[in-house]
User: Which sequence fits this backbone?
């Protein structure tokens, strides 16, 4: 009654959901139709003028002793505070990442200039140290970019720039980019994705990011002498891509969790692998924003096979309301460009 502002409504008895709220009505109807549990978020006006409260609604079908549906129960939990905290957390993350980016950019720039000898001659030892500074700065930049990207994706603040994306071309670019890394790790990289594969509707930069993450992992977790293979297949309405490696593999019990943020499989005492554990959760976010799926295939033999399916055309349900709260403040001078 408090949630729906019913006051001392006397006849709760025969109260129909549609008399209360259409969102709830829809939820109950769908639960009845599908005969299962549903979880949904609904937004209702709060007690104060202009206030909105977010509820997590769990609904489930009640069965009688013969297993026939008798009714539906819905529980509403007020998650407004939680939502606000989440929003603040990701805002904080993206503001901090932005503030870190600018000084790093300038550190890297100056180190580059010194390394080029433009600030006077440097000794071999100095060069050696500066190379390390440059490398570590690069690693820090990657980490910050991942954090920034992740916090935006998680907060739903990323607007996709849709265009027809030829995955064959994207794969070729990714393979070319990561070829040096593969050579360094003595891993053979095979790209079997046909260059004339039908395009999918998507954000090219972000789909490239997905492939980059997968191929980078495949190379990283494959000992020297191994193979990494990219394949793709046209499924008619969609395209499926596989990234297969002959590396250390992922135990079945860990296969869901590797898509969690910051999750890394405990590799025991083996050599520590660089990384943040954000790559795959970013991949999953991106693929799902493209109405696709990503998972690890069960295959015989050693190694790991990641695969994802992307529809060729996205289904549209009205305009997507993704406001970008994190657009960098316009500031004079260098740095922060337009948000993606
Ligand atoms: N191809 C692979 N082979 C074996 N393990 C993998 C592979 N890809 C991912 N993993 C495991 O999943 C974890 C999460 O991957 P990811 O999210 O990309 O984070 P990161 O690469 O930064 O560690 C990795 O740390 C690793 O334990
Ligand atoms: Mg990774």
Assistant:
């Amino acid at each position: 009654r408090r949630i729906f502002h019913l006051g001392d409504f006397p006849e709760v008895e025969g109260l129909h959901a549609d008399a209360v709220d259409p969102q709830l009505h829809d939820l109950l109807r769908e639960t009845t139709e599908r005969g299962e549990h549903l979880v949904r978020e609904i937004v209702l006006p709060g007690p104060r003028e202009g206030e909105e409260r977010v509820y997590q609604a769990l609904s489930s079908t009640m069965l009688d002793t013969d297993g026939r549906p008798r009714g539906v129960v819905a529980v509403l939990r007020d998650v407004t505070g939680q939502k606000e905290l989440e929003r603040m957390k990701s805002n904080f993350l993206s503001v901090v990442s932005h503030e870190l980016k600018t000084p790093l950019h300038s550190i890297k720039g100056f180190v580059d200039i010194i390394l080029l000898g433009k600030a006077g001659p440097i000794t071999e030892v100095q060069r050696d140290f500066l190379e390390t500074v440059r490398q570590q700065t690069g690693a820090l930049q990657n980490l910050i970019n991942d954090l920034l990207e992740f916090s935006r994706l998680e907060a739903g603040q990323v607007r996709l720039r849709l265009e027809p994306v030829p995955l064959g071309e994207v794969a070729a670019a990714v393979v070319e980019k990561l070829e040096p890394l593969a050579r360094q790790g003595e891993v053979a990289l095979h790209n079997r994705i046909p260059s004339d594969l039908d395009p999918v509707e998507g954000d090219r930069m972000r789909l490239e990011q997905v492939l980059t993450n997968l191929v980078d992992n495949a190379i990283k977790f494959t000992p020297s002498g191994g193979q990494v293979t990219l394949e793709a297949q046209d499924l008619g309405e969609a395209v499926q891509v596989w990234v297969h490696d002959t590396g250390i593999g992922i135990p079945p019990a860990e296969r869901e969790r590797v898509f969690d943020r910051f999750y890394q499989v405990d590799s025991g005492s083996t050599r520590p692998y660089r990384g943040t554990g954000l790559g795959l959760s970013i991949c999953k976010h991106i693929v799902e924003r493209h109405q696709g799926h990503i998972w690890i295939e069960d295959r015989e033999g050693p190694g790991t096979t990641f695969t994802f399916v992307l529809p060729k055309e996205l289904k549209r349900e009205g305009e997507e309301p993704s406001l970008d709260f994190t657009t960098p403040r316009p500031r004079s001078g260098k740095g922060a460009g337009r948000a993606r």
